[in-house]
Design brief:
This protein is an alpha/beta fold. 27% of the residues lie in helices and 21% in strands. One of its GO terms (molecular function) is hydrolase activity, acting on ester bonds.
């Protein structure tokens, strides 16, 4: 921590802005800066704050809560994490062991008081903006859910060209793969749960919006448009001029199918991959330090390629097209 008292104070406080209409309605929470090097969500939220403070628009009903920087320590360092990844092991802690535990203890009750969550992120590799949604309605043990239709409709109206499903399933499969057949405990599965998994567990629903590459100058606009579209969909505020009431066309829907870890510091990609680069079955993706090729398991798409991944961490995800229907027919 810095010895500068002002800098230290900035990491000890969360800015939480709440606007409540006089008419009851949905309660929407928007988070930015869960990861400190992802600044576009903060920029989009600050723009909405300025509009609300300046009277550009008002809430018609419900309650809107905006958190521009959910992880102040990581933001001050302009790093993904402060002391650990805030978007993992997201649950209250009776004995907080690190900075992110203390932040989580503030954010968890805040999330519990809301119906809908929009969590704004960006990513390291080149690629288009996309939304991430949770499971289909199910009564299973990993992530039981009953609001897939509402969640899918929100993702549809955010207007991204791609929507991705299947995160927690593939995270759990990755854990099983790394454990080499040893049973994976619930604590290990919990490490894959983030903000959206938490609100689903509380009876709400949420969408993660990946607004583009970290430094993409269009990413803050993507974040702002998503907030305004979410407010309009929920009947909480009017759309600004220039934004269509309906998404221009249905997005491409992909399902995560597998994750491949980087095993050695000399493992390398055969070229610079961007998120959603298409690959064909057997196409070389990377090479292990011993010369073994890592190839595409099927026709599909590269997601979240990370050439800087530490050994033992996710190197890239693989996705294929999904036949899921977003919106009222989702199941």
């Amino acid at each position: 921590m810095s010895s500068d008292p002002l800098a230290a104070a900035a990491t000890d406080n969360l800015r939480i802005h709440t606007f409540a209409a006089l008419e009851p309605g949905p309660r929407l929470l928007v988070l930015g800066g869960v990861h400190g090097d992802e600044t576009c969500g903060t920029a989009g939220i600050e723009r909405v704050l300025a509009e609300l403070d300046g009277g550009t628009f008002r809430l018609r009903r419900g309650q809107l809560t905006l958190v521009p920087v959910a992880n102040p320590l990581a933001r001050r360092r302009l790093q993904r994490e402060g002391e650990r990844n805030l978007n993992r092991l997201f649950k209250p802690s009776a004995e907080p062991a690190d900075y992110e535990d203390r932040v989580t203890n503030v954010l968890c009750p805040l999330i519990e008081r809301h119906d809908v969550l929009l969590d704004l992120h960006s990513f390291q590799s080149e690629g288009e903006a996309f939304a991430m949604i949770g499971p289909r309605d199910n009564t299973g043990t990993l992530e039981p859910f009953a609001r897939a239709s509402e969640e899918g409709l929100l993702a549809l109206h955010l207007g991204t060209p791609i929507v991705v499903e299947g995160w927690l399933d593939i995270y759990a499969a990755g854990l099983a793969q790394r454990s080499a057949g040893i049973a994976v405990g619930e604590d290990a599965i919990d490490f894959g749960r983030g903000t959206n998994e938490y609100i689903r567990n509380c009876g709400g629903y949420g969408v993660t919006l990946e607004c583009g590459q970290h430094r993409d100058p269009k990413a803050p606009e993507v974040a702002w448009r998503a907030i305004r579209r979410a407010l309009a969909l929920l009947g909480m505020a009017a759309l600004p001029q220039g934004l269509l009431a309906e998404p221009p066309k249905p997005p491409q829907l992909l399902r995560l199918a597998s994750v491949t870890d980087r095993l050695h510091e000399d493992d390398s990609f055969v070229r610079d991959w961007a998120t959603f680069d298409a690959v064909q079955r057997g196409e070389p993706i990377g090479m292990r330090h011993d010369g073994t090729l890592v190839s595409a398991p099927d026709d599909g798409f590269i997601v979240f390629p990370n050439a800087l991944a530490l050994p033992g961490a996710e190197w890239f995800y693989f996705a294929h097209p999904s036949e899921r229907v977003l919106g009222p027919a989702a199941a």
